[in-house]
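Why does this matter for the project? Reviewers at the last site visit asked to see concrete outputs rather than summary tables. In response, this paragraph embeds two records directly. Each consists of the residue sequence and, immediately after it, the corresponding structure tokens. Nothing has been edited or filtered.
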Amino acid sequence: MRGRVPIGLALLFLLLALPNAALALDHLFDCRSLTDKSSIQPYEPLTGGVTHDSDDARYLDVNLSVQFRLAPFCDNPAGVHNHFYLTMATRFGFYWDTRAGSPVIGKRYNPQLLWRFTPDVSDGTSTSSKRYIDVGYAHESNGQLVHTPQQYQSQLLLTPDVQEANQYIHRGWDYLHLAWKLNEFGHVATYLEGKYFLPHGLLQGPEDEYHSWEDNPQGKERKAVDGLDAAVEYPVHADKILGILDLAAKYQTGYDVPLRYSTERLEVGIQAGPLPLAVWVQHGYMSDLATYYLKVTSYGIEVRFFSFSTQP
């Protein structure tokens, strides 16, 4: 992260102080303890598997995430939930036996302050809720250190392979986030998501994306390929297809000129005994933050958990 970090920390401390104010309203709300297990959950699925991108070597792909409920810690008696969260998602690529030294390369660091509105009686902290609306302020970067053409030339001396050297170019953005989950069609869930990438953010400072010195004919701004997302999942309840399968389809495009640059992704979930597996294929952009602007075909297989519990 670069830029005005003290301001971001001040906002975080402010949110951490909100529980004390919320306790003054306990006569209106059913308040829960900080020790309630629902206060800490994964924000995105916890995954580990093998990924191959057509512009990169094969690597072990690990995604970890957590969401921690901040304030208020209370629910409306009518069943409506309004909660603030601090979320964090990370991604690492372990190039085991595919690059010299088998390096581990950070690919994504994504902290976010999030407000979730859940108009259901189901647990508002769970991604299995039937419906919710998220509004957030987020920072996303790959945590790398190459910012200038001089640094890039130095990196090429260390890693002469251009594909590998490109993984060390820094990318970073702050963005506004809006997500909406619907589950009004029986066993089908629909997700709509929007992001607006800020030219200058509280945590990132000036956005850091494709630079002219990279001299790639496919180079473009992130808003050209990302910012508008739609996804469907079937089924979303315990009953799977043939008892073991579930399906997901996702579409992504930029908001600069919608539909001009698109990404399609298909996923098949397989319950293999106690292991929840997912096989997926993707064609388009955003396979990696460092080379988000390249059109790439990717595929992989992973173990995927939606909670900290390992129970199926």
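We now turn to the second protein, recorded in exactly the same manner.
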Amino acid sequence: MASANVVVHLKDCRGDQIRLIKRFIKKCKKEKVVERFLDKRFYEKPSTRKRREKLKKKRNAQKAEAKRNSQIGER
């Protein structure tokens, strides 16, 4: 993921500033600007990062499996 600045342009001269701010926030979330900032506040050993990401993937897989099982049970 390239680290580029988030840019949002006003589409017309009388555009709604609230929509512009919402688009900016949405774009920042998509680019994960805040998450990258929070991750880089403190040094984290690569082994610790790998362990954390592995556990996160495992939890997400368990959640997805539980969701699939609940949807099957509803039928």
